[in-house]
Design brief:
This protein has 196 residues and is mainly beta. It has two domains: 134 residues, no CATH class; 40 residues, no CATH class. It has three helices and eight strands. It has a six-stranded mixed sheet with strand order 1-3-4-5-6-7. Strand 3 and strand 4 form a beta hairpin. It is elongated, with a radius of gyration of 25 Å.
Length: 196
């Protein structure tokens, strides 16, 4: 059984430096089908060249289950702090990305037919390790907020003068869009064309 390690590791991941999300699977792989291990996650990992700026460690639980020719890797109740850009005021802000659950199958050998190379995860059979770096990166991107705003009350930038209205209100006169009906004559145009 693995011991719980609550210390935060800070490692910059690149092509040269090994990922802090590499885990040994020897005990799981040597056991019977259904054998599993749970590992607490508390690691600060970086994602260079991906646009993800991490501000807080990845925390959660990692579970590995031995199947017939693969290991099922499950991440549960995970969260990670990231820096995002507000779509209204264009300021950076920190957000917590929550990943309730994610699962991937890490295969012991490469399949003969591969539809998408990004969906194939392999066990390093030489070292008996798995690297969940790409799995985590994909899940973070999948769980980004659809609309990125620093707060619900963010007033954004003035479309006329460009001033951040959260800091200084401006005296620019806004166009009243409630009386704008761009499609009011559409029915007339359709009827006119159908006569020809």
């Amino acid at each position: 059984m693995m011991t719980k390690n609550r210390t935060v590791k800070k490692v910059k991941t690149s092509a040269v430096v090994k990922s802090p999300l590499v885990f040994k699977v020897g005990k799981v792989w040597a056991g019977a089908q259904g054998n599993n291990i749970k590992i607490p996650l508390n690691v600060l990992v970086e994602f260079p060249d991906s646009g993800i700026k991490v501000t807080a460690p990845l925390q959660g639980e990692l579970m590995m289950i031995k199947l017939k020719e693969e290991i099922s890797v499950i991440i549960k109740d995970a969260s990670i702090g990231v820096r995002l850009k507000c779509g209204r005021c264009l300021n950076d802000y920190d957000a917590l990305i929550r990943i309730p659950g994610a699962e991937r199958e890490f295969l012991s050998r490469r399949p003969s037919i591969i539809d998408d190379l990004n969906d194939v995860y392999l066990i390093d059979m030489k070292d008996l390790t798995i690297d969940i770096y790409e799995m985590v990166r994909q899940e973070i991107i999948l769980h980004f907020p659809f609309i990125q705003v620093c707060s619900r009350s963010c007033k954004g930038l003035c479309p006329i003068c460009g001033r951040n209205r959260n800091l200084n209100p401006c005296a620019c006169k806004q166009e009243d869009l409630s009386r704008n009906f761009p499609f009011k004559n559409l029915k007339k145009l359709i009827n006119k064309k159908s006569k020809f």
